[in-house]
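Form P-L/3: holo structure prediction, ligand nicotinamide-adenine-dinucleotide.
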Amino acid sequence: MSKILALPGDGIGSEILDEAIKLIAAVESLFGFQCEIEHGLIGGIAVDQVGKPLPDETVKLAKQADAVLLGAVGGPKWDTLERHLRPERGLLGIRAELGLFANLRPAILFPQLAAASTLKEEIVAGLDILIIRELTGGIYFGEPRGQKEVGGNRVGFNTMVYQEEEIARIVQAGFDAARKRGSRLCSVDKANVLDVSGLWREVATEVGQENPDVELSHMYVDNAAMQLVRAPKQFDVMVTGNLFGDILSDCAAMLTGSIGMLPSASLNESGAGMYEPVHGSAPDIAGTGKANPLATFLSAAMMFRYSLGRADIADAIDTAVGAVLDKGLRTGDIFSAGCREVGTVEMSDAVINAMRQAG
Ligand code: NAD
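OUTPUT (holo model):
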């Protein structure tokens, strides 16, 4: 029996996670899959209820689970709190506690949504790339960090640091993923300026020598940002550090037209993982029933594929999402003329029905 921890979080988080739990219940009856779902607190709601964004109980439950399914955290209500109490700290904390070092973000453009991209259709139609971001190291965690006063001047500083084992581990994850796809891996760094990137490139090249079946290339991050917008289909898998990956994966996200369609997976060395939509808590539409649940459904599909060993269920969810888009159903964020606008619950029910009909 698989154990899943559901962490709704804030804003639209609970709305989309409620639907994901309905989806998992349907999967249980359709595919003879059995799971136990626990619920936990994270983010602003955890600050309100227990005084910190990542309660110990949540960490305990997450460590016992095979997979964590997360909604989103954050919102204006908590923006003025001290940094260590901010909802986002809960996310950084759980990634570190679970050792989630690899963040997998596919940017796939469903053909039905090609017109929703801000780029020309021929640039993005059929796009299918995967960005792998290192998640537990680099400048977001490096010490020393802080602010101080030097000679009457305020100074802010962070440290971008990577050990060779950390680089080798994430680059190897890149090779493993590329091998299952188009066998091309592009390692992204800033080796022309940063010493830490110099080491990144050296180690990536060494790991490449152990993976000769996958073609390795290197690219500076500024060029990678340009190429992602100019000709994104040239990439298969990209692997990069925490800061560069944060920015590039959001850039890739926009190629697909809607942040409401993008799933992500974060994996640790034992194969357990946390699965979450790329978008945030969308405070502007929270409570209106308009949130697109599909990024969360596609995240659940990744959970079945990567942590629960059920690629068949993942395929069924992906296919059902495609079938519903084919029928012309759209939430507001992906709406285009000639389609029918639906809310969170109607979109979710349509996907579940499509899965039932296919099964
Ligand atoms: P956001 O992703 O929440 O929203 C950006 C825009 O996209 C908004 O207009 C929103 O309505 C829309 N949107 C997002 N998800 C949608 C969905 N599923 N369906 C339809 N429309 C959707 O980003 P933001 O506004 O910059 O941040 C809001 C809060 O979320 C902040 O507190 C931020 O810190 C937090 N945040 C959390 C995460 C996370 O939990 N992983 C990620 C990013 C931002």
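COMMENT: The first helix runs from residue 13 to 31.
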